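Task 17 of the worksheet. Students: predict the tertiary structure of the chain below and write it out as structure tokens. Keep your answer in the requested format; marks are given for formatting as well as content.
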Amino acid sequence: MKVKTILVSQPAPKTETSPYFDLSEKQKVKIDFRSFIHVEGVPVKEVRAQKVDLNQHTAIILTSRNAVDNFFRVAEEMRFKVPDSMKYFCQSEAVAYYLQKYVVYRKRKIYVGNRTFPELCKLIKKHKDEKFLLPASDKLKDLIPEELNALGVDWKQAVLYKTVVSDLSDLEDVFYDILVFFSPSGIDSLFENFPEFKQNNTRIAAFGNTTIKAVTDAGLTV
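Model answer:
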């Protein structure tokens, strides 16, 4: 069957150079974008209940832009002035660049990994005497605490934001030839919104091994 419509379960790209637009033009297909999940900040009251004391930490491990936003949100709501001496360990250049939204980049101690968390751990290992805080979501990859524990560093996780299922009820009578997923949470959202979903002739594209597993575990075909 010819593909005419695709739904990508992410926000629309903000740059005109996105390969999605080339795909749409060259293949004459309609591509829509819709977030199946979104992020909500955890209230400060719940953060305090985790016994998180920002004063006790000398370094922050940042794995995403959501982590950056919510760390500084919580710091502001707790009236905590982030000291200039704070060290920032960013998983990628994109995260480090985003950090400039909140700090004067050239005046801070910022260490940048090479995209993967194990690569970032090589930098963390060189600063084992720091007291690390890991701003995280409620769905943290097992790899991250495993790697930090293996290093033997002093670290604490703070759940500052949560991944929440988006309301997709307006899509109930809309059908696409291909659905594109990027995380297991997207599959969770699909079935929470549409418990009776049947794949039928719909093709499913999945990015990453954990997403592929979530698709097959749900009884669907990638």
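Marker's comment: Residues 5-36+166-217 form one domain. The chain has two domains: 5-36+166-217, 40-163.
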